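Exercise 7.
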Amino acid sequence: MYKKGSVLVLSILMIFGLVMSGCAGKGSESKVKVGEVTRSVFYAPQYVAIEKGFFKEEGLDVELQTTFGGDKTMTALLSGGIDIALVGSETSIYVYQQGAEDPVINFAQLTQTDGTFLMARDQEKEFNWDMLKGSVFLGQRKGGMPQMAGEFTLRSKGIDPQQDLDLIQNIDFANIASAFASGTGEYVQLFEPQASIFEREGKGKVVASFGVESGHLPYTVFMAKQSYMGKNKDTVQKFTNALYKAQQWVGSHTAEEIADAILPYFKDTDRDIIISSVKRYQDQGTYAADPILDDGEWNNLLNVMDQAGELKERIAPDTIVDNSFADAATQKK
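Solution. The predicted structure, written as tokens, is:
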């Protein structure tokens, strides 16, 4: 009886140990709350990092939410509603310009060009930039990267956005596409996959790419408050490692393979539209090959913001950019 009792106790302890070790394994994952400024094929490497398990491999449990707009995303970050934001670098500059005691630091770049395309309602005429003069242009939010990069491009084509266009900017980001679909504007700036969807539906034609025309920019970047990064260096490093794995995966796979990986995030969109969108971004080099934000891109961003009248002073990149995590991720064997 003693031996049987001992075996029973030992068995119970072993089972308990296995259960606890399983719980410990789950508990060992660090939870990270991420807010993306919008849901877009533009952010394909982020979804790949989740779907291919690259965050899990690094011991991270990423909770993704869409925060719809740069201002709302930054509010969520500053208030602690999210740990990491995926948003345009200009938002970190705005926070810095306001004299924040706990500045927001850019640590991993996701996209390196503007992600919008110029869509014309009239699909018959052969496009040239002068056709925009005098037209009704459905733009983006003042001070946001899509609008600033768009204006930067227009000026380079000899067009004054404020004088030469009937510029509409009072429509919320989430409603711009539906406004164009309902008849507002002769031209509009749209992200993918909306641009491809409208082309298929015959609502317009993509005639130019603001990503190609405005050059390389730290357009969409993962960032966090300085205080969070100071307390969670290991988590930030693991996050950046996972992102780099995803960037390498995207760089070595076809548009079809990438589309299949990210389809769960676009359940209401046809696969061929996702493929078309991914290919469009691939062809113009939108997806950054690594998470490093270089000085040339940063200075181009400052030029874009300066032209838009949104920059109080030029800010050296190392003031609110920390490439140490990206450098470590790319050097990891």
